[in-house]
Structures are given as C-alpha cells and as structure tokens.
Amino acid sequence: MKSYQVVALAGGVGAARFLDGLTRVIAPERVYIIGNTADDAEIHGLHISPDLDTVTYTLAGIANPEHGWGIRGDSFRCLEALRRLGADTWFQLGDKDLATHLYRTQRLHQGATLAEVTAEITRALKVRSTIVPMSNERVRARICTASGELEFQTYFVKRHARDRVVAMRFEGASEAEPAPGILNAIAKAEAIILCPSNPFISIGPILSIPGIRGALRRRRDHVAAISPIVGGRALKGPAAKMMKSLKLTPSAFEVARLYQDFVGVFVLDEVDRKHAVKVQSLGMRAVVTNTIMSGLGERKALAKAVIREL
Amino acid sequence: MKSYQVVALAGGVGAARFLDGLTRVIAPERVYIIGNTADDAEIHGLHISPDLDTVTYTLAGIANPEHGWGIRGDSFRCLEALRRLGADTWFQLGDKDLATHLYRTQRLHQGATLAEVTAEITRALKVRSTIVPMSNERVRARICTASGELEFQTYFVKRHARDRVVAMRFEGASEAEPAPGILNAIAKAEAIILCPSNPFISIGPILSIPGIRGALRRRRDHVAAISPIVGGRALKGPAAKMMKSLKLTPSAFEVARLYQDFVGVFVLDEVDRKHAVKVQSLGMRAVVTNTIMSGLGERKALAKAVIREL
User: pLDDT tens, A228-259?
Assistant: First the structure.
C-alpha cells in the first residue's frame, strides 16, 4: 500500500489555504488529506460536501479567492431561478459548483462510496493530492444551541453562526468507520498535520470516527497541530465564540489542551508566544511562527516551518 | 369542479407555439393543457419533463425563441462543469432550466405528485393556464429501432432521431391513470384540441393512458386535431420519418386516419387542401387554413380558426 509523506486533517477554508502552501512545498502526490464531512448537507436534494469541495477547488486552482469557498467567477443563475420557484436559497450554490453536487449525488445514488466519488472528482479536476472523506458513512454535526438543536448548515450559513453553542454531537459517528486507507496512511506517514481548522466542528468530527484518534495517539511524536486561534480570535469562523460559549478561554493554549493526548508538536502564532511555555507543560513541543496566511508566501512559509519540525 | 373552455393535448415545441397563440385569443385561465410525459427522463439524477417545461416556459414568456425549448438567454456553465467531471452531457441543460429540474426532483422525492409539482412551477412562473401531466404515474416511451430498443431521449437527442423506428411502446401506460381532473375536463370542455404534435410520440402516449381515448370519443364532435404534417413533411421533429418507417405515407390524411375514432374536426394546411375530401370521407369535418406558425400573428390566426369550428 502506498505511503504518504504527510497526512493532513482538514476542515474548510483555513485548511485549504494551508494545504495550498503545503502542496507547493512538498510533492502534492505525497499529501493525503482527510476531509471533514460532518457539515455535509442535503440541499435541493443534492449531497453537498462543503469541506471536501473547498479543499478540492483550492488545490485544483479554481477556488474563489475572495470567499475561499465556491468556484472563481461562478454565476448564480440556477439559484436565482430556484428562488423564483419559491425554493429556500440561503445556501449559495454557483452554477459551476452545482455540477460537483449533481455529479456526486448521482454517483452516490448509483452506489459509489463518497470516497470513490471524491477520487473521481479530484482526478477530473487534476488535483494531485489524495483527498478522502473521513468516512464513507453518513455523519452529521448537530449543533445544540439556546434555540434548540440545529443542522450544521442551518446553524452556520442560514443563521450566520449567531446562536450560542452549548454542545454538539456527531450523529452517526459512533457507528461509522474511517474511509478505507485512512488508518494505514496515518500509521505510515512521515508527518501528520492538523490544519488550522475549527477544533469542534472541523477536526472534532474527524476525531469522533472510531479508530482515528487512537491511530493518531500511536504517532503522537509525528503529529503537529496548527492553532486556529491567534491572539484569542479565530482566523476564520466561529471557533473562538464557540470556545467561550463552551466555557473555555479562547486561546491557542486551550486548543492545545484539547489535543494533548495525540499531538506532539503545537504550532502557535508569534502573537501567542507567551503561551509556548504552557503548551510545553502539556508535553508538547511548541513551535512559534507566523500562522496568518495572508498570501501564498505566508502559506508556503508556514508549511515549511511545520514540515521542518516533524 | 371547474370547467374549461378548451382542453389541449400537447407535446413540445409545436404544441407550445400553438398554445401561445391560443392563450392570446381566449382567456388563458380557460385553457387546460394535458402534457405528454412519456419523454420524461432521469438525467444527472434529475427528473426532466421536457414537454411540460417547453409548454410552461412558452406560456410564461421565458422560452428560448430560437430552439423553442429551454429558457431565453440561459447559460450552460453547470453543463460545462459536468463535462469537465466526465459526465455525459449530450442533453442540454441550461443553468436557469436546471432550477426547474432540481425543484421538481426534490418535490417528487418529498412525495408530491408530478401534477402538484407542475402546478407549483406554473404558478411560480405566473402561467395562467392549467398544465397537467397526462399521468402522475411513470410512463416512458421506448423506441424500437433497427439498432434495438432505445430510451426516448437517447433516440431523440443523443442519436438525433436518426435510427429507423419500427415500433414504440409506452412502458407503464397500461397501469397508469390520467392525472386527477383530466377526464372531467375533457367531459366538460367546450372544445378539445390536439395540438400539432407528433402523433406517435407526443399525442400517442397521452392516448395510451387508459380512459383518455374513450373520454375523447364521447366528445368526438368537439374534438379538433391540427395536422403536424404539412405537405408530407413534419413541421418539427421526426413525425414524417417515423410514418415512413412505420410503412405509412407521411401525409395529413394518414394522421387523420390515426385519429378517426375520436376526432370530429381535422385541420389541414392550405398546401394539403387536396386531402380535404379524403379526410371528410373518414367522417370528419376538414378545415383548411394556414397552419405554419411563423410568427405570433399566425399562431393567433390558427387558434382563432380552430376555435371558430368547435
């Protein structure tokens, strides 16, 4: 079985940006990406895998650079026509982007696994890295908020992540299996990297698939995590807000604590240098570097800095 | 129950053009259109109803005037992206058009009937006439050709209607029921009109639904058919070619013969005036007028000429 230089655990936009740098620093064929699928949703009857698509589009070089998600220069004519028909159109679906969802949905109906479809899509879009869903089984994040339990995309997109999060659960996770190849890739990789993604709703679901956290623990010295919290704020998305409502201090150190059983190297931003000693007290090596990926230069520099440590 | 002035049996583009004229000559609310659904297809996992959509888009004033089908000014970005993913893209699906198919497919999955969905779509697009599918049940035209049996859209679109047709069958028709309201509308209408559509693959499937042909027979004096064959050629589509391969002379008279048990008034084009006497020998009234609908004026004139006779 093929072995990879780097296995990455990935959420959406933040992960995609880091992986864009990583695959320019090492051979993209040597990168194996495990994508979160707990924020997958059925919208207009289509199976949407937002995180897989964001990573795929980014590595295919067709991502919308402004949003990070969606396809560059896409139009929204179908969505406008759906709105005219009275459909709910709070979830943005571009015309080109729709093709991915149509293709995926039909292939799944035909009996293909999500991993197989993902491989077909990435191959067609000439992505040279391997992208696999965390599981072929259906796992769905349910967000428990003050206003009740919400489907992830309802919480995240429709309600703009405004609700106070009190807990989350990953429906289907305990019966799910890692997609074929994941455990082997983790066992054999030279390095494993947790991208700077939300620990609760991006990395958390991947860790909730039985077997994955244990596999990472066995490789702890070779596992690095990049903090998605910089200076007490999330680089992207609701991670900091979630930490607060979950009664955690939003800080890089608290993220490190969540990962302490399986992460050996924790990467903090320069502004969080003061946390380095505390992180080391968790038995991790702390690496301080610039983690804010404003441009391609920063993405590559961060990837190099992390790779160097593993 | 509501009664209608005119009930029309309709295929695709030819029917839509005639109905465009008809609904400008009488109140559109008084027109009840029974649409062929035997050429419906599942494409990219979507339920496509080409004839219902062609009539709907035309009456909504949004049809592509050049092709007759599809939406004016539509783009094909999703289709191009599907092609990039390796999907079969011989069936043209515009970005705006896709919304109709997505909406329909999802509503059907949710348990709505095709008639209900069609009513929702036409209402949203502000179509004032009633458009109903011939049946809520699945009926599919299978075209038996020298190269074997083909699905209708494969024969018609993918293979450009080039195969020699030796027979056709309408899978599911014998177990299907007319959509609710159809038999009552036929029983009570002042006039019933067969649009100038293909007798084999557009009108034929509607007649194949148990109960419809009998209901028309009981109204024979009030049923008019407009010949889709003019001067031995089809106005649109493969009707004339099909007649030949089915060992029939492609002529207006031969179409009249197919309908003689339930049509009382047969409308022929000026160029087929010579057939009028033979048509009358079938016990039909022959009406000779211009049936070529080059523009809106002709569409309206034809509608007026037919209405006047019923």
Answer: 999 999 988 899 999 999 999 999 999 999 99
Provide ipTM, 2 decimals: 0.91
Mean pLDDT of chain A: 95
**Cβ contacts of A120 on chain B, cutoff 8 Å:** 85-86
| Cβ separation B96–A102 shorter than 8 A | no
Is A244 domain-assigned? yes
What is the average pLDDT across B186-196?
A: 97
The shortest CB-CB distance from A102 to any of B44, B86, B121 is to: B44
Helix residue ranges, H only, chain B: 13-25, 50-59, 77-84, 95-109, 114-124, 152-153, 182-188, 204-207, 212-217, 239-245, 252-259, 276-280, 296-308
Q: Can you give the pTM of this predicted structure?
A: 0.93
**Could you give phi then psi for residue B195, rounded to 5 degrees?**
-65, 160
**Is the CB of residue A191 less than 8 Å from the CB of residue A6?**
yes
Q: Which residue of A has its CA nearest to B94?
A: A78
The string over A242-275, giving b where at least 16 C-beta atoms fall within 10 Å of a residue's C-beta and e elsewhere, is bbeeeebebbbbbbbbbbbebbbbbbbbebbeeb
The rounded radius of gyration (Å) of the Cα atoms in chain B is 18
Domain membership of residue B193 as a residue range: 6-45+129-141+173-308
- Find chain B residues with C-beta within 8 A of A80's C-beta: 96, 99
Residues of chain B with C-beta less than 8 angstroms from the C-beta of A86: 120, 124
Cβ atoms of residues B243 and B214 within 8 Å: no
Of the residues B47, B78, B121, the best mutation for testing chain A's interface (the one with the most A CB atoms within 10 Å of its CB) is B78
Q: How many domains does chain A have?
A: 1
CATH of the domain at A185: 3.40.50.10680
Interface list for B 93-132 with A (CB within 8 A): 95-100, 102-103, 105-106, 109, 120-121, 124-125
Dihedral angle over CA of B82, B86, B87, B92, nearest 10: 60
Inform me whether the C-beta atom of residue B73 falls under 8 Å from chain A C-beta atoms. Answer: no
Asked whether B21 and B296 are in contact (CB, 8 A), the reply is yes
Nearest to A106 by CA among B135, B159, B12, B47: B47
The answer to the question of residue B151 being in a domain is no
Does A153 fall in a domain?
A: no
Count of Cβ atoms closer than 10 Å to residue A105 Cβ: 21
CB proximity list for B229: less than 8 A, separation 6 or greater: B235, B239, B240, B243, B250, B251, B252, B254, B255, B272
Q: Which residues contact A189 (CB under 8 A, 6 or more apart)?
A: A3, A4, A5, A6, A7, A32, A219, A222
Closest CA to B233 of B225, B242, B221, B224: B242
Tens digit of each residue's pLDDT (9 = 90 or more) over B106-136: 999 999 999 999 999 999 999 999 999 999 9
What would the two tokens of residue A176 be? Answer: 């799910």
Q: Quick check: is A146 in a domain?
A: no
What's the one-letter identity of residue B178? P
* Contact across the interface for B96 and A87, Cβ inside 8 Å: no
A81–B75: do the CB atoms touch at under 8 Å? no
Task: Using the predicted structure, report yes or no on whether residue A167 has a pLDDT greater than 70.
Answer: yes
Question: For residue B74, which residues of chain A lie inside 8 Å, CB to CB?
Answer: 77
